[in-house]
Amino acid sequence: MDGIIYLDNAATSFPKPDLVHDTVREFYSTMGVNPGRTGCDLAIGAEEMVHGTRKAYSAFFNRSIIEAGETTDPNRLVYTLNATMSINLVINGTVKPGDHIVTTMVEHNSVIRPVNHKVKEGAEATYVVPDDEGYIDPEEIRKAIRKNTVLVFVNHGSNVTGVVQDMKAIGAVCKDEGVPLAVDCAQTAGVLPIDMAECNISFLTFTGHKGLFGPSGTGGICVADDAEIEGTIYGGTGVRSAEPYHLKEFPYRLEAGTLNIAGISGLHAGLQWIKQKGLDSIYSHEMELFQMLHDGLSEIKGVQFWGPKGMKNRVATMSMTVENFDAQDVGTILDVEYNIQTRTGLHCAPLIHEHHGTVPRGTVRFSIGPFNTKEHIDTAIRAIAEIAADRPA
Prior knowledge:
Helix content: 40-55%
Strand content: 5-15%
Largest sheet: 7 strands, mixed
Mean pLDDT: 96
Distance between the termini: 36 Å
CATH architecture of the largest domain: 3-Layer(aba) Sandwich
Order of helices and strands: EHHHEHEHEHEHEHEEHHEEHEEHEH
Structural class: alpha/beta
Shape: globular
Strand order of the largest sheet: 2-8-7-6-5-3-4
Number of domains: 2
Number of helices: 13
Oligomer: single chain
């Protein structure tokens, strides 16, 4: 790993904090058994960790409720393998043939494809078009809502351009119209504060391996106390085994089978690390480096940016191209000649690339994390300057 500059944190955060590595290793080597399946000490200890992590994340996404001295049901924090699985569970558990779903062109394929499959099965969908920078006008959400709309699903932060939507305003529209709001927080959970009650969010979906610094194969859904959803996976729960049908109560309604307990222990440690460092402090560090990268690349002839023009309402993710260069070629040169890891292509979000006119080849994406340094950014700026200087006529 010596000499590698990792600027692909929108794909997965790397490296993880030592606290995460140490916690996973220690937990799995001392208590790596099925939680709650027996009354033995090890199983009880594993269940305490699993439930403690539920409580911690439920509180993390329901800050205003907790600060008001009220409570929310932590069992409505359910574990999944990733944000994609979370999104599928929400869509499959709420949308039926004849129903209508509102979403946007900013979405990742983890939303686009399940929605398209629902349309194929007889549902209807509207993809709201953003403005030139990628922002969604909440009033366009309102205009798209129909009598048979059962769900609005919106990406909080774009994995392509870093644009962050105004979830409070979108949530207010959904509340006015009486439609549940689901939010894809894959890019923002652990990066920006987001409060379910404040934003009127019914279903908050997240992944563990990005801004939460957990292991791969972790994620979840935080379901609001008043939100309705049907379970769509069935199997063992470790409790009430004589029941012939899958249990209706949370968390079992959306969980089945053995959980990724090593991953959940890492999720717990990732949240601990975030709290120790401070959410604002982590974000400020990333955005300081992002500003530095943006300013440096802006001075290079032939560089073009795609997405938001300013530094507000965004995360530290950038899409750019170099004139007369294929994005994949730029990414390859950065990797092979400069040891800089980026992501190129359509980033599993083809509609926003269509909107920005960057299909079919896509862009080069830089995404900054808490372990990046000014030296990393200086090297990236110099690399792009040298590549651009050699661009063909």
